[in-house]
Amino acid sequence: MSQLQPGDQLELIKPLMYREHNEGAISEFELPIGRKAEYFGTVRSRRLNVEDLHPEYINGELMHYDSIDLPGGHNVRVDDGHGFGCYYTFKDWNEVFEYFRVSRTKKDHQNAV
């Protein structure tokens, strides 16, 4: 399996659930097969101080903590079909390629023919 580079275009091959917290409301929807995506690169695990977060991200649960641990992994942005991105962090390459395949561009297709 070759390693992806930031900016590589992907295509969703398995439905993926997205859950978003917005002003106290939770919306959840499924991203369908064929949705376009972009690989953003890897991020390291890190610890954030809750007080450093933007106030809109601090919910009733987070306000009881001094800091939170964010997992590292592979960041992917999936188009939600309305011009917004749904962001995911996958723990390893196997997980990335369980849901995505590399999109073939017209140039790649011409070279293959």
Entry keywords:
113 residues; mainly beta; 5-stranded antiparallel beta sheet; two-stranded antiparallel ribbon
Describe the 3D structure.
The chain has 113 residues and is mainly beta. The protein contains 2 helices and 9 strands, in the order E-E-E-E-E-E-E-E-H-E-H. Strand 2 (16-22) and strand 3 form a beta hairpin.
- Helix fraction, binned, reads 10-25%
Strand order of the largest sheet: 8-7-4-1-9
Assign the structural class, choosing from mainly alpha, mainly beta, alpha/beta, alpha+beta, or little secondary structure.
Answer: mainly beta
Record field, number of beta strands: 9
Largest sheet: 5 strands, antiparallel
Mean of residue pLDDT values = 84
Globular, elongated, flat, extended or rod-shaped: what is the shape? globular
Continuous helix count: 2
Determine the N-to-C terminus distance: 22 Å
Order of helices and strands: EEEEEEEEHEH
